TrEMBL record:
<dbReference type="GO" id="GO:0009306">
    <property type="term" value="P:protein secretion"/>
</dbReference>
<feature type="transmembrane region" description="Helical">
    <location>
        <begin position="55"/>
        <end position="76"/>
    </location>
</feature>
<keyword id="KW-0812">Transmembrane</keyword>
<comment type="similarity">
    <text>Belongs to the FliQ/MopD/SpaQ family.</text>
</comment>
<dbReference type="InterPro" id="IPR002191">
    <property type="entry name" value="Bac_export_3"/>
</dbReference>
<dbReference type="Pfam" id="PF01313">
    <property type="entry name" value="Bac_export_3"/>
</dbReference>
<keyword id="KW-0969">Cilium</keyword>
<keyword id="KW-0282">Flagellum</keyword>
<feature type="transmembrane region" description="Helical">
    <location>
        <begin position="12"/>
        <end position="35"/>
    </location>
</feature>
<dbReference type="InterPro" id="IPR006305">
    <property type="entry name" value="FliQ"/>
</dbReference>
<protein>
    <recommendedName>
        <fullName>Flagellar biosynthetic protein FliQ</fullName>
    </recommendedName>
</protein>
<dbReference type="GO" id="GO:0005886">
    <property type="term" value="C:plasma membrane"/>
</dbReference>
<dbReference type="GO" id="GO:0044780">
    <property type="term" value="P:bacterial-type flagellum assembly"/>
</dbReference>
<dbReference type="GO" id="GO:0009425">
    <property type="term" value="C:bacterial-type flagellum basal body"/>
</dbReference>
<keyword id="KW-0975">Bacterial flagellum</keyword>
<keyword id="KW-0472">Membrane</keyword>
<keyword id="KW-0966">Cell projection</keyword>
Length: 91
């Protein structure tokens, strides 16, 4: 296996990880920012006030983006399995 193939697989793995994490992280970021803004306006500093809405929003994001996420990881896995003969032959 050549160093270029290893770098290509590593790069694709990092990209797929970023793509799959993005909907969850962006949802948690937006909801967390909104709740923090609300807390600073109302001066209510309660930890659970920011935690519970984030959990609910992330669960909703998983319901919405879950099928896409599964399709992406299956496509990536199939691509990796398809590459096995090429990687073993050294070409």
């Amino acid at each position: 296996m050549s160093p270029e193939a290893v770098l290509d697989i590593g790069t694709q793995g990092l990209l797929i990880a970023a793509k799959l994490a993005a909907p969850i992280l962006i949802t948690a970021l937006v909801v967390g920012f909104g709740i923090s803004l609300l807390q600073s306006i109302t001066q209510v500093q309660e930890v659970t006030l920011s935690f519970v809405p984030k959990i609910v929003a992330v669960a909703i994001a998983l319901l919405i983006a879950g099928n896409w996420m599964i399709a992406e990881i299956i496509a990536f896995t199939n691509d990796m399995f398809d590459r096995i003969p090429m990687l073993l032959s050294g070409g």
